[in-house]
Amino acid sequence: MRVTFGSTFRNGLVDINRAAEQLALRQREVSSGRRIHLPSDDPSAMAAAMGERSEMAVLDQFTQTTDSVDSRLSVADSVYTDVINRLTNVQTRAAGGRSTILTQTQRDALAGEIRGAASAIMTAVNTSYRGMYLFSGGQSLTAPYSSGPPISGYQGDSNVQSVDVARDRSVQVTFDGSAILQGSAPADVFQTLEALATAVQTGNMAGIDQGLADVGAAFERVTNAQTRIGIELARLPEDRARLVTQKQAADSRRASVEDANLAEAISAATQADTAHRAALGSLANLGRLSLMDYLK
Amino acid sequence: MSGLFGMLSTTARSLDAQRYGLDSAGQNIANINTPGYSRRVVDFGAVPPTSERLNAGNGVEVLGVRRLRDRFFDRRLFQENPAQYRESSLAASLGVVESSLGSPNATLNARLNQFFDGFGALAQAPTSSTARADVLARGQALAAEIRATDGRFQQAQLDTDGRIRASVDDINSLANRLASLNDRIANADASGTMTLRDEQNEVVRELSTLVDIETIDHPNGTVQVSFGRGKPLVIGDVAYAVTVQNEATTGFARLYSGVTDVTGAISGGKVAGLVAARDVNVPGYRSQLDTLAYEVTQQVNTLHDAGFTLGGVDAPPFFQPIAAVAGAASQIAVDPTVAANANLIAAGSVAATPGDNGTARQLATLRDARVLSGGSATFTGFYTDLVYGIGQDRSVAVSEGNVRAEVVAQIDNLRDSVSGVSLDEEAASMMRFQRAYEANARFFTTVNQTLDVLLNLGR
Predict the structure, then answer these.
(1) Partner B contacted by A71 (CB < 8 A)
(2) pLDDT for residue B173 is more than 90
(3) What are phi and psi of B42, to 5 degrees?
(4) Which of A36, B220, B261, B316 is a Cys-bridge partner for A41, taking CB atoms 3.0 to 4.6 Å apart?
(5) pTM of the entire predicted model
(6) CB-based contact B123 A163, cutoff 8 Å
């Protein structure tokens, strides 16, 4: 076949352009660290990478929720600890009130301590987290109890709230104060403490015994609630670790389709550079060799 | 005596012939970069001897000049060009659409995720004004991104339409040029039409890059061109203009030959690629985006309507209700009442319970709900499918265009092997004619010296 000037240069230019395109592509791969920049570079890989990024966004959201839940439950846990300490103190004081040798002044002092514990428990249960009361159920804008005397009845509701820390797991983050401080008993803990304080003040032994029994029941409810929170708090690090692992796996899958293998990319870029130089040199040499050079 | 003088004139004619050959080589070299130029070759013929005794012949004469052309390769090129240019123009148009997506991980996909993240955060703090403002901002950002993406797709359609109109001008300009060339070729002496025919061939080649054409060569040298399943474009010296009419609904250009709409009949060339992008590909993408916008609106509103505001009353729709799928992407917007008051965002599913987060949780988990593509795709999955489709369409067009370009390059090479100018070959021709000229001149000198001998015989 005749090889003409036009076809030689046209083909040479096509080859140079192709080599230059490859070189630019490889250089961008090396400089950006990414194998794909546009969907058409590798549509399937781009779709897979987008899927993994969406999954990572979901996992990030769950991780952030887990952290928030951890803080919130820690606050609730400290409230329970406080309430338990107060109830324990009340039990000690009330038991002391059963003594028959106490003077009225001493009885008044014990009763005052018991009423002070009731007030402290109310303050603890009225704890809010970022502007929301933790122990009002769904009424998170309303304090569970308001100070008296006497301390009010429960002002929240039983509509406790949960948030999702994984697709298949949610954690309760608001609590029914009434279920904890009253449960199925006829009186809440504040009424119980007031009755106990009165019994201690008046030396009513039967009343003190009844009050101690009621405080014991309240103590058990609060302890059980704290145990439940403790279980959730203990699970949260596992949840967080699982989310981190899942995110690492998703990121690894994303990287495998989206990121450049730098060693491979650098090698390919070097190869493309060589090919580009060869294409340029080849065309330059082709143009240099001609029978015209031999004409005198 | 007369024989020697006759030889002088024979040699002079031979010198002329070799000079003509040299001239032809020069012409070929001069036009080495002229598009469509076909190399010329000079045909020489020996002039036979007269009946006179002892006459070897009367030298050489130029029989003519031929333009080397293989019509088969031209026709193949006219057939392959439309396919290549259709794919390359489609790829270019889709490239614009593809680039309008931005980084697929950072635009609409990210906005969708952020929107649902917002409800996730609201579920943690249903009464938080910050969380509510955040959900509102994210909803507005999502709606704005969908509208902006649709706007970019629409702009791509408009730009493509503009390029179609410009291409029609090119077609008509080339058709007029071809008609004029046909006229000049038909009315010129055949020997003087070589340059015109090269130009004619080049014009037809250019036409074949714009639309798929059928050509018929007539004996008088004219070329008849039709397009769009047999509609005339050029017959003899008459060009039939392609006209443009605006489509009633979209305002896009429709191409007419006479009174016939040939837009759909054009299957090759740049115009076909542009029409495919404008009328098939981009509308398909916009339709998918409409579906996404409609379903986002419907699904979010369904849950939101069932929820309750911070004040504990029935919530309004989160997004402005949209009546139909068509055009939804350009209409999606956060409901103005919600936009004006973030406390109207429904976080709770129980009335008069401001701390309830039931609806916010449901809306957050809507991210994973398979509510699109017949219940098989999530919102982000559906958008990923759209991005995949655009990437795949462009990738196929680029790949197909490259394959076709390779075919066209091969045919170009074959055509050049017949018609193209080879510098080495022309250099050889130059040497050949130069040497022949020198030999003839030497022969002339010899004859002249012989005549001198003869004329000095008597001295």
Answers:
(1) no
(2) yes
(3) -95, 130
(4) A36
(5) 0.87
(6) yes
B-chain CB neighbours of A259 within 8 Å are: none
Which tens digit of pLDDT belongs to each residue from B112-132?
A: 999 999 999 999 999 999 999
Lowest mean pLDDT of A43-52, B2-11, B361-370, name the range: B2-11
What's the CA gap between A75 and A212, in Å, rounded?
Answer: 28
Contacts of A16 in chain B (CB under 8 A): none
Q: What is the DSSP letter of B326?
A: T
CA-closest candidate to residue B405, choices A15, A232, A136, A172: A15
- For residue B120, which of A61, A242, A63 has the smallest C-alpha distance? A61
d(Cα A139, Cα A132) in Å, to the nearest integer?
9
Taking the CA of residue B299 as centre, how many other CA atoms within 13 Å lie in the half-sphere pointing to its CB?
A: 21
Query: B-chain residues within 8 Å CB-CB of A292?
Result: 423-424, 427
Report yes or no: A65 at the B interface, CB cutoff 8 Å: yes
pLDDT class of B1 with cuts at 50, 70, 90? very low
Computed over its alpha carbons, how large is the radius of gyration of chain A?
38
Q: For residue B128, list chain A residues with Cβ-Cβ distance below 8 A.
A: 130-132
ipTM (interface predicted TM)? 0.86
Question: For residue A65, with 0-12 CB atoms within 10 Å meaning exposed, 13-18 middle and 19 or more buried, which class applies?
Answer: buried
> With an 8 Å Cβ cutoff, are A140 and B413 in contact?
no
Query: H helices then E strands: how many in chain B?
Result: 12, 9
Give B82→chain A minimum CA distance, Å. 19
| Residue to substitute from B114, B365, B384, interface A, most A β-carbons within 10 A | B384
The DSSP secondary-structure symbol of A147 reads -
Would the pLDDT of A282 be above 90? no
